[in-house]
Amino acid sequence: DTGVSQNPRHKITKRGQNVTFRCDPISEHNRLYWYRQTLGQGPEFLTYFQNEAQLEKSRLLSDRFSAERPKGSFSTLEIQRTEQGDSAMYLCASSHWTGWNTEAFFGQGTRLTVV
Amino acid sequence: QKEVEQNSGPLSVPEGAIASLNCTYSDRGSQSFFWYRQYSGKSPELIMSIYSNGDKEDGRFTAQLNKASQYVSLLIRDSQPSDSATYLCAVNGMNTGFQKLVFGTGTRLLVSP
Lengths: 115, 113
Prior knowledge:
Radius of gyration of chain B: 13 Å
Number of helices of chain B: 0
Radius of gyration of chain A: 13 Å
Strand content of chain B: over 45%
Shape of chain A: globular
Oligomer: heterodimer
Number of strands of chain B: 11
Order of helices and strands of chain B: EEEEEEEEEEE
Largest interface: A-B, 23 and 25 residues
Shape of chain B: globular
Structural class of chain A: mainly beta
Number of strands of chain A: 11
Number of helices of chain A: 0
Strand content of chain A: over 45%
Distance between the termini of chain A: 33 Å
């Protein structure tokens, strides 16, 4: 399978705990995006990487959220001190960015439930 | 005004009919436009991209773009029950430096047998 892979698929955690998600993009893609989606809404941008460089973080992303892409391959998204409002589907997407085309392909997502 | 607007639906069509899904966007400098299909509980799947004014056809799907009216649509011909899903419109615009996609909230399509 050469698509975008996310792990875990589901995560249930208690409020206040830390969680970490992993995303493996399509191998030749240089861009990796993290989005968050809640019920009835479209995906909401969180952050993106060009190779290993994190180029933008959404203003909506609190200090409890951090993302890395250490070698320009897989990426991790960590949420510290989770809150019930963090419950959502966390989506990773990758693209081969050519200057303006942003045709992005999503992974299966990680559904987070904070109890 | 939202950057990308879609009617949430549901849009109900009978099997075999044409489903027409619409999307408007506010950033006049937007350059590329995408339609994603999302089944309940699943992640979005890219089905169409369009960059120039006019129509682009791919099988039963036709994307239509009118940059002057800031309007993009998706037509699904011979709709099937398996087409029942939420359809997300996404735009890559000047406001974001063409760096990322901005999504609408999606239109739910129901195709009845």
